[in-house]
Inverse folding.
């Protein structure tokens, strides 16, 4: 199984439709099974989209717009001959003009739900965080996938990364399903006793467990939210439960073998369920 995560920074990049096409062509070429996208934006004032049965509604809080980046991506993939089940949730309003959220695309049927993990419920507050979880019915059985975009680490008990991560675990209801967390965690791997250490106390980092690795960091210097950063960071991850055997971890859309499409690089992971692999 191939799983991909990318913070798209959509509609905030130069030549966004060209980048959307590059993403679509890569997904088609690699035959990616599950895709988690963050910063999936749509203009608040855009007309509503005409959606079909492949779209699985996680909530009815915000209507789908015709310029939603994920909607346009799945529409283009359909034109290229492949259909994805998909869903999207709105996390907050960004830059005073966008509904910003997370999306999941899957070759297999999904049962999605939005999970509010911040202590802020007002849509207009950029600190509001909502993750997108989906039970996915794969040929090998059911799995749980959570597409994530977290806040930064804070030294408080009721806000920031630690609070949001705990809320995720309490509300996810994995029911012992094989589980994947993918997304922008805003938690550099090299910082001790912060978000990365908290997550890896329970789940495993695919970069660490992969047999083959190509690339590591996903952010280079200054980006939105990291304006004072001067170093290479690994903040985009795929974390997994112990049910998985990770074959390969690859940084993509980094300007080497694949074009840069965002202010984040993407991550592609190939992995199998252990109990099926060794039957």
């Amino acid at each position: 199984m191939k799983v991909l995560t990318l913070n798209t920074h959509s509609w905030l990049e130069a030549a966004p439709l060209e980048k959307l096409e590059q993403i679509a062509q890569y997904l088609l070429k690699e035959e990616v099974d599950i895709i988690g996208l963050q910063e999936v934006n749509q203009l608040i004032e855009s007309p509503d989209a005409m959606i079909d049965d492949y779209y699985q509604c996680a909530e009815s809080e915000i209507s789908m717009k015709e310029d939603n980046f994920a909607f346009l991506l799945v529409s283009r993939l359909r034109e290229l001959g492949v259909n994805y089940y998909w869903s999207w949730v709105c996390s907050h309003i960004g830059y005073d003009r966008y509904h910003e959220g997370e999306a999941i695309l899957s070759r297999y049927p999904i049962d999605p739900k939005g999970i509010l993990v911040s202590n802020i419920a007002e849509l207009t507050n950029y600190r509001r965080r909502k993750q997108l979880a989906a039970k996915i019915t794969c040929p090998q059985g059911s799995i749980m996938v959570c597409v994530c975009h977290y806040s930064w680490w804070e030294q408080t008990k009721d806000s920031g990364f630690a609070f949001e991560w705990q809320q995720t675990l309490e509300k996810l209801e994995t029911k012992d399903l094989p589980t994947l967390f993918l997304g922008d965690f805003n938690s550099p791997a090299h910082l001790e006793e912060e978000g990365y250490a908290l997550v890896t106390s329970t789940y495993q980092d695919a970069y660490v467990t992969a047999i083959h690795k190509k690339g590591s960091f996903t952010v280079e210097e200054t980006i939105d939210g990291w304006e004072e950063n001067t170093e290479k960071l690994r903040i985009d991850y795929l974390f997994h439960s112990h049910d998985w055997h990770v074959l390969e971890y690859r940084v993509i859309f980094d300007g080497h073998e694949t074009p840069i499409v965002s202010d984040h690089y993407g991550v592609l992971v190939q992995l199998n369920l252990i109990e099926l692999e060794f039957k």
